[in-house]
Amino acid sequence: MCSDSKLSQLCRLIDDSLRPYTELHVVSVTREREILVSLSQLLRQVKLWTEALDSDSDNGVAIGLDCENDCVCLNKILTRLIVLLTVESQYVKHLACNVLVVVSEFVAASGSHWDALIRSLCVCVDLAITVAISCSTSPSTTGANDFCSSSSSLSLVLKPKLKNADWSVAAGVVRVSRDILKYLKSENDDDLVGVFIEAVNCFLSTVPWNLFHEIHVGPNADAQKSSRTDVLFQRSLFLGNLVQFLCSLVEQGGAVEAAGGSGDNHHPVFSTIINLVPRLLSWCLGEQADCVGSNNCISQYFKHKLLVLMVRLIVQICPESSILISWLQLIHYYFEELLRQPIAPLKCNQENCLEGSPFLSNVSDSEVNSLSSRHLQRQAVFLFLRCSFSLINSKGGPNKRCACASWNLCLNYDSHAELQCCGRKKGLLELYNWLQGHLPTDMLVDHEMYFEKCADFAKSFLQLYVNEDDVLFKVLLQLLCVPFSAEKQFEKEKGSFPDSKGNVLFLVSDLFNPVLLFHLFLVELSYDHQVLLDYLISKDTGISCAEYILRCLRKVCDSWSLFVECPPSGRAINQSSCKKRKVSLDGSSFCEGDLFEPVKGCGRSFLEDESNDEKEYDCKHTRGYFEEAKECLLSLKISIESLNRKNLFPYNPNALLNRLTRFQELCFEEEK
């Protein structure tokens, strides 16, 4: 073995430290303390060596790793550490996983054998899963031998040592993979990430997922000593780690593609994970999830992580219409109760506490579960809207002979027979049916209160998301994608109120009118420009908030009269969330006419008996809302300019400042 090989030195260190405990096929748990001491020493030593490698690399010292036996060393390292995951000690397993992670950091810092390490780790996961599900298929037929020339030898050496392995071994290696991905994210090395994702995609494509419903600990009789409950728990542990890893993989893969500007050519791993989604839902939440059904916490966790995974996937890429339709079916099957929950804000007596805070006082278990359910509701509703709007805006559009080709589309109650018409029809019908479950039954009959009820629904919808910043701007940006592209044609065709009773686009345009929603957004923030500034400079929400404000300011400038004279209704103002300062107003007002069209005067819709005094009162308070919004946005402009002059703004705000300058010019013209 080459004496100058850094990997061979690491191999000797690990071999000398762990050989006494891993030589036998079964590692004795009675030596737990000795194993923990050896692993702790290894962890510290490998970290020191990695720091030295990083230092040498910074100083321009080349790291030579040309030894022919380095792959053999790598396999020996992995074998020694993976075997420790079979020990019935959670502390040994945890520490062994940590050592595997620092070994990967060492290999990455050395500048060689990264590809071999990642592919060998995938072989380990593949082998652990194969053993856990008692699959008779050999690793070679599942793709293990295709990774690299040394993989077959790794399988031959490791397989006998894993004969008593359970799901916790596979869960441990998946956890290591996720920690490696977190390390790569901090290193910001696209080449290392690319190799990692390519190997993982190959692994995910070759695992015998169709056999996953088989629940066994191992192929021999001794392994059956574990109770069914323990096996199910271990299986849930693996599934939890797997879904969590896939969430991180999608996020990191999307970041790499965005940096590389790959456009519509998405990495195959996204398609692989999309194909896994129905199975993951079935394993974690379906009939096969009998271990989850009795544990509400595990069920809530799986729902959260699976929703996060699906949201990240659909945000990164736009799946085909067939996938979107199947996802809508899955959403209804697994998350229907979340879609049906009332949109109205949660009544909260903890006005000074953040939702979900560990410092919530005097909160019962049922109230805590309600808070968790509220979070899941946000994710499920956003995913549902994203799928529906993606179908509505799908490329290619409907056939000219299809009823969907007309903007004047009225969905009657017998429209279910026309679902095969096109994807757009399916998206519109899904949206319409969902809204029907949340809007007052007399909304389209009570002309006098129609617009006020629209504003009240929009306010409640906004309050659903206002306590979760990262999802808030995702959904706000999504609502800007409501198909308003044919606005002029739509206005001509939709006609009078009674003729548009069943028109989905008519209804959605009034519920989620972007100018109205932007004004409601400012109301919810109590017109505090500092809150907007915090959103803009936040690492998590900055870019999405800037995009939302930019697009809304454009719509405000294009529909200036609407923004000036058509504020939220008084009832919607008074329904401010418990988290924000309430803005009170006596009485309610709204503007006559259509939410799309510039308003020429103040007054209440469909009311002809309103006195002159009432009209003057409404106009006076309407101007008050506009003045609040104007002061907020102009103060925001001043703050951004101040930070930008000091080079303290985290990104180039020129586009935002230009749009705010245009807004300021319109305000000056309004004062003339």
UniProtKB/TrEMBL annotation:
Under what name is this protein listed?
Answer: Uncharacterized protein
| Record Pfam families | LINES_C (PF14695), LINES_N (PF14694)
Q: What is the lineage of its organism?
A: Eukaryota, Viridiplantae, Streptophyta, Embryophyta, Tracheophyta
- Residues of the Protein Lines C-terminal domain: 629-665
User: What InterPro entries does this protein's entry cite?
Assistant: Lines_C, LINES_N, Protein_Lines
All copies of domain Protein Lines N-terminal, residue ranges: 432-566
